[in-house]
């Protein structure tokens, strides 16, 4: 005889399922609260420790050096990264060469920043004779953020509908004109998001810049001058052990810049979602 399920077991099964769902929702909610709590705790701790010790005049030199570093890093990595992404997404037909490029990009993204710093110190500082300078630091940083630019640009290009390309080509536009006037403008918000993320990484980087740009506290006269960025300045103050208050003051400025960049990237990403 076929077995007959006991109807009395159904309420127990439903109750057990509801308990599991409630536990899962509670765990997910608690995880979200903990994540946000850590961020708020970090921000509050830094602000409380350094609010009365912000010396903008004493941070002019690190800020100028940071601007130099961002300019060199983005000026080199953005054109190369966008060009590489366009080739991978628009011109290549796959194959081992393309696989090699993607593999190399992923490997670069996984390399610790301290190794980039050691490479920059041996190659740019010593072999090429650039010494400890902003140029050495900027060149090193440009290599470090290149994978981020390539990956974010390629993902932005993939979001452009294929019908845009087909429509442009059907109207008689060339491949290059289609990319320049149709694809790139449509992918610009995503590309800008990657650039903003890369800028934040440059501003927050310490190890690679410490080993290549030096730690001289001065307003750089040229790219061949040594200097310290905001993150390196913060590290040096904490390392000395006698200027913790000034270190927290510098941390507030650094944290404000990084948070502003993150909010900017979030704003750009949200605008992308609204336009789709």
Précis, in short:
With 276 residues, the chain is mainly α. It contains ten helices and no strands.
Strand percentage, roughly?
under 5%
Number of helices: 10
Please give the oligomerization state of what you see.
single chain
- The global form is globular
Report the average pLDDT across residues. Answer: 85
Attribute tags:
276 residues, mainly alpha, MetI-like fold, 2 domains, 79% helix, globular
Structure characterization notes:
It is a single chain. The protein has 276 residues and is mostly helical. The protein folds into two domains: 10-53; 55-275, Orthogonal Bundle (MetI-like fold), CATH 1.10.3720. It has ten helices and no strands. Helix 3 (96-110) crosses helix 5 (134-158), helix 4 packs across helix 5 and helix 9 (230-240) packs antiparallel against helix 10 (244-275). The mean pLDDT is 85.
Question: How are the SSEs placed, and which strands pair?
Answer:
Layout: H1 9-50, H2 60-91, H3 96-110, H4 113-127, H5 134-158, H6 162-170, H7 175-204, H8 207-212, H9 230-240, H10 244-275
């Amino acid at each position: 005889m076929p077995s007959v399920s006991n109807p009395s077991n159904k309420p127990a099964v439903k109750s057990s399922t509801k308990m599991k769902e409630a536990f899962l929702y509670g765990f997910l909610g608690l995880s979200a609260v903990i994540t946000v709590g850590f961020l708020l705790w970090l921000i509050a701790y830094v602000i409380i420790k350094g609010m009365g010790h912000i010396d903008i005049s004493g941070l002019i030199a690190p800020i100028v050096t940071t601007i130099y570093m961002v300019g060199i890093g983005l000026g080199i990595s953005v054109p190369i990264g966008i060009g590489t992404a366009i080739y991978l997404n628009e011109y290549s037909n796959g194959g081992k060469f393309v696989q090699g490029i993607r593999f190399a990009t992923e490997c670069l993204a996984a390399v610790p920043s301290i190794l980039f710093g050691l490479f920059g110190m041996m190659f740019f500082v010593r072999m090429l004779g650039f010494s400890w300078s902003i140029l050495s630091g900027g060149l090193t940083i440009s290599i470090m953020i290149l994978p981020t630019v390539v990956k974010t640009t390629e993902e932005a290009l993939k979001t452009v509908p294929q019908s845009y390309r087909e429509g442009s080509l059907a109207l008689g536009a060339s491949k290059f004109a289609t990319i320049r006037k149709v694809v790139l403008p449509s992918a610009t918000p995503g590309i800008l998001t990657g650039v903003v993320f890369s800028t934040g990484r440059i501003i927050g980087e310490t190890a690679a810049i410490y080993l290549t740009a030096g730690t001289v506290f001065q307003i750089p006269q040229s790219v061949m001058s040594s200097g310290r960025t905001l993150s390196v300045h913060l590290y040096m103050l904490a390392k000395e052990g006698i200027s913790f208050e000034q270190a927290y003051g510098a941390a507030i400025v650094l944290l404000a810049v990084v948070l502003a960049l993150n909010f900017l990237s979030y704003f750009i990403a949200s605008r992308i979602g609204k336009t789709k």
